[in-house]
Amino acid sequence: MSQSRRLLKSIPTRPISSIHRPQPKSPLPPTTPSSTFHTTPPRPIDTSPPAPPSTTTLLFSENQPPTLPPRAALLLPTWHPTPSGKGLTRTFTFRSFSAAWTFMSLVAEECKVQKHHPSWSNAYNRVTVEWTTHRPEGLSVKDVEMAEFCDRVAGGMGVKA
């Protein structure tokens, strides 16, 4: 028999029922019996995409090429101006969480190359992306290029309409 087993056998043990555990004293009043609670079923989680903002005006950063406004206008059927008009936002819905994560990874790699990053969020199979430029403030050619890149990647992955 090993030394550790001998040590374990030499330790006196008591049945768990004989161990005294004082009950904590709560400063709260006693709880109401559960039969008096009225419960309502949980509300379903709203996973619908946010409604597009009412504005269609885009505000561009300084010193942008003259071809930028018409190029940005081509994105407007699927992308929406942010409430400030200084950015573009879109929600992509994929077949699965894994596909959404793959999309984000591919976009993140391009973000490193372009040195331009979005504000975005992911919930389940949905990714919401917002492109804007902070200095100088407004929509820039990088925002439009990255929105176009997102569309190409999502289209190649079979994004849901």
UniProtKB/TrEMBL annotation:
The keyword Coiled coil does not apply. Residues 1-78 are annotated as: Disordered. Residues 41-53 have a biased composition (Pro residues). Its EC number is 4.2.1.96. It catalyses: (4aS,6R)-4a-hydroxy-L-erythro-5,6,7,8-tetrahydrobiopterin = (6R)-L-erythro-6,7-dihydrobiopterin + H2O. GO terms for molecular function: 4-alpha-hydroxytetrahydrobiopterin dehydratase activity. Keywords: Lyase. InterPro entries: PCD_sf (IPR036428), Pterin_deHydtase (IPR001533). Pfam families: Pterin_4a. It comes from the Eukaryota. One of its GO terms (biological process) is tetrahydrobiopterin biosynthetic process. The keyword Lyase applies. Belongs to the pterin-4-alpha-carbinolamine dehydratase family. This is 4a-hydroxytetrahydrobiopterin dehydratase. It comes from Dothidotthia symphoricarpi CBS 119687.
